[in-house]
Specification:
Strand content: 15-25%
CATH topology of the largest domain: Penicillin binding protein transpeptidase fold
Shape: globular
Radius of gyration: 34 Å
Structural class: alpha+beta
Number of helices: 23
CATH class of the largest domain: Mainly Alpha
Largest sheet: 6 strands, antiparallel
Helix content: 25-40%
Distance between the termini: 114 Å
CATH architecture of the largest domain: Orthogonal Bundle
Number of domains: 4
CATH superfamily of the largest domain: Biosynthetic peptidoglycan transglycosylase-like
Length: about 750
């Protein structure tokens, strides 16, 4: 009695001196910056604490039940301290001969996490109990439970169960299964020990305990408990994997927010809504990765990625193997594996998580030449070699390698510049450099349309005939040394029209055009498309794309052709919202059709569009028309000198796409690795998805274009629409094409127009 009275007196004296619980009554947790697609899918999260605040009414019942079963089954009955739980723990600890159970309630855990240290002393425990009473006096049970659910640390930088559901399983808390809820509920006791990423076996044991408790308490029946135990959980190993490969975009958005709100960018719960769409981004990333891996296969296996010391490995399931793989991260679908033994017809390898792979047949083809004992020792596949493996569908596993070539792809609406997809490289974790916005590369022949567009303003037409013959340029004209350029295939076909020359990407014709219109004029003209004049010196090499551009610039420039001549600025952030959903920032993009944005004459854009349709129909990008089975595609391939950069820049009236492939340290990609071979497949793979179900459409024909019939040096007769004022006088019967036509109208009957001939 005396002891109890003394405890009561101490409690009465200590209670007024307890810290204020305003942090709970006005709970404002640190919420990280989050980045979303335009259709609401999370693609990035930034902040020291990964937390996603969720209201108690939005937490699924199964998640609440799992937490109560694991942590505090009598939470809704006790006043903050569970005396029955204390007695049960005491008995269990006494019988067990040591400390086996604790008796902290959810309320006591909240008190400890907010106001007290984690030291295990009688004084701290006493204050914890007093604080629990105070909290219960000021907050409802649901309010306390809501704080707990959002505040508790659960490993992997996850604070709260909503964040943990995303970080461990890649899903919203409302979508967790019984099995997933039980595993998450098992984490508060020891987030590291029961972490399913680090300790999958111990996490599974803890999950089974929680499931048993849920069954004992009547939350689930035997059948549901058994089903949950048998469920195979797909645990994320990378907390930055949100199911949509858009890390470069998320980083762009992060930089914008930090620049605008530097003091609280990572704590106020800002939400960035980008212009991306989930389907477009996934399609672009998949197409780029597929094309890069195809390129890599074409150039052979370079050898094992590394070797690890195997002397301490006692068996195929030795935990040492898991530790050895710790230094090698997963790169997309390319997983690191350690070779256990290698024979010409079979390789056995250890995969992270304990799976033993047996790779045979087609799975060995790529690496076959380095399995042989005669292979160089520093490259040979042998025990201890670290290789990359990929699932090949029903065919099992195959050995591949991390590609060393890089690539980029970006797509946008030509109407307002809204980015639909952006892939800055093969893998953000492997290389964070954003090749779309940061890589200054030579555009090669993909720059020719801008030279041709300048020529149209100087009086050229698609029917103008120009010689495709060798040319020699003096050192004075090049600005450095004498130059004898060649066509990429070394072949010359004599006189041809500009239309044919662009379709076939004839270098000699482009040089002659630039020489005729003047390099300074062309240098100034290309700035209309957003190019930097100082990146394109006024020399004849400009005709072959010897300047420097980024894929982002190419996107804006080709949009001018796609939208009828308007200069729009690509943009990737649609809105920045605060934690309450208020709009803090939103761009006001320019819209094609606004004459204030006019960059080139509508007729110029239409004629260039028509000429670039021929590039896809019968020129260097003809495989796109075959693959996509459409006639409304236009664009231009680009290959720089010595196959260093490969491009395809193309569009359909609803979407513009730019693809680039090359090495970060520029070097030769190999014979035949042209824009049509290396870059165009990326564009095709994306457009297959982006244009699915989109009807064919064509640019409306602007007024003041006249249809003529022109003879081609090849003997063919072409019908062309050219600028009205560039034509010689015609009969009164000649009729302009209707300005509201959506496809080229049949030409009016006119006399043959004599094509112009430009001499070297």
């Amino acid at each position: 009695m005396i002891t109890a009275a003394m405890i009561g007196i101490v409690a009465i004296l200590a209670f007024p001196r307890l810290p204020s619980i305003e942090a709970l009554t006005d709970y404002q947790p640190k919420i990280p910056l989050r980045v979303f697609t335009s259709d609401g899918h999370l693609i990035g999260e930034f902040g020291e604490e990964r937390r996603n605040f969720v209201r108690i009414q939005d937490v699924p019942e199964v998640m609440k039940q799992a937490i109560l079963a694991a942590e505090d089954e009598r939470f809704y009955q006790h006043p903050g301290i569970d005396t029955l739980g204390v007695l049960r723990a005491a008995v269990s600890n006494f019988v067990g001969g040591g400390k086996r159970q604790g008796a902290s309630t959810i309320t006591m855990q909240v008190a400890r996490n907010f106001f007290l240290s984690s030291e295990k002393t009688v004084t701290r425990k006493f204050y914890e109990m007093l604080l629990a009473f105070k909290i219960e006096h000021n907050l409802s049970k649901d309010e306390i439970f809501q704080v707990y659910i959002n505040q508790i640390y659960l490993g992997q930088r996850s604070y709260g169960f909503a964040s943990a559901a995303q970080n461990y399983f890649g899903k919203a808390i409302k979508d967790v299964t019984i099995a997933e809820a039980a595993m998450l509920a098992g984490l508060p006791k020891a987030p590291s020990a029961y972490n399913p990423v680090i300790n999958p076996e111990r996490a599974k044991l803890r999950q089974r305990y929680v499931l048993r408790r849920m069954k004992d308490l009547g939350f689930i029946d035997e059948a549901r408990s058994q089903s949950a135990q048998e469920e195979i959980l797909r645990v994320k190993h990378d907390i930055n994997d949100f199911g949509i490969p858009a890390e470069h975009v998320a980083e762009m958005a992060r930089q914008m927010v930090v620049e605008s709100f530097p003091d609280d960018a990572y704590t106020r719960g800002y939400r960035v809504i980008t212009t991306l769409t989930r389907g477009d981004q996934i399609a672009a990333a998949a197409s780029l990765r597929r094309a890069v891996l195809d390129y890599d296969r074409r150039h052979g296996y370079r050898g094992t990625e590394a070797y690890v010391e195997m002397k301490d490995v006692k068996s195929d399931q030795d935990e040492a193997l898991e530790e050895l793989l710790g230094d090698f991260s997963d790169i997309d679908t390319l997983y690191p594996a350690i070779v256990l033994d290698a024979k010409p017809d079979q390789v056995r390898a250890y995969l992270r998580g304990g799976e033993i792979l047996t790779i045979t047949g087609d799975g060995l083809k790529f690496a076959a030449r380095l399995i042989d004992d005669k292979a160089p020792p520093n490259k040979r596949l042998r025990r201890g070699a670290v290789v990359r493996v990929q699932k090949a569908g029903s065919k099992g596993w195959q050995i591949l390698q991390l590609p060393d070539v890089e690539a980029a792809f970006v797509a946008a609406s030509p109407v307002d510049g809204a980015i639909r997809a952006l892939v800055g490289g093969f893998n953000f974790g492997h290389n964070k450099f954003n090749h779309v916005t940061q890589a200054w590369r030579q555009p090669g022949s993909s720059f020719k349309p801008f030279i041709y567009s300048a020529a149209l303003e100087k009086g050229y037409t698609p029917a103008t005939v120009i010689e495709d013959e060798p040319i020699s340029i003096s050192a004075e004209e090049t600005g450095s040394q004498a130059w004898e350029p060649k066509n990429y295939d070394g072949k010359y076909e004599g006189a041809m029209t500009m239309r044919t020359a662009l379709a076939k990407s004839k270098n000699m014709v482009s040089i002659r055009i630039l020489k005729s219109i003047g390099t300074h004029y062309a240098q100034d003209y290309v700035t209309r498309f957003g190019f930097d004049a100082d990146k394109h010196p006024p020399y004849l090499t400009m005709a072959l794309g010897a300047g420097a551009v980024t894929p982002w610039q190419q996107l804006a420039a080709y949009s001018v052709f796609a939208n009828g001549g308007y200069r729009i600025e690509p943009y990737i952030v649609r809105q920045i919202l605060d934690e309450k959903g208020n709009v803090l920032a939103a761009p006001q993009p320019g819209i094609a059709g606004d004459e204030n944005l006019r960059a080139i004459d509508a007729r110029n854009a239409w004629v260039m569009d028509s000429m670039m349709h021929d590039v896809v129909r019968r020129g260097t990008a003809a495989r796109a028309a075959v693959a996509l089975k459409r006639t409304d595609l236009a664009g231009k391939t680009g290959t720089t000198n010595d196959y260093i950069d490969a491009w395809f820049c193309g569009y359909q009236p609803t979407v513009v796409g730019i693809a680039w492939v090359g090495f970060d340290q520029p070097r030769r990609m190999g014979n035949g690795e042209t824009g049509g071979a290396a870059a165009l497949p990326i564009w095709i793979g994306y457009m297959e998805k982006a244009l699915a179900g989109v009807p064919e459409s064509f640019m409306p024909t602007p007024p003041r274009l006249i249809s003529i019939t022109a003879g081609d040096p090849s003997g063919k007769t072409n019908r062309e629409l050219i600028y009205e004022e560039n034509l010689p006088p015609v009969d009164d019967d000649d009729t302009p094409v209707s300005s509201n036509a959506t496809t080229p109208a049949p030409p009016a009957p006119v006399r043959d127009a004599k094509p112009k001939l430009v001499l070297p």
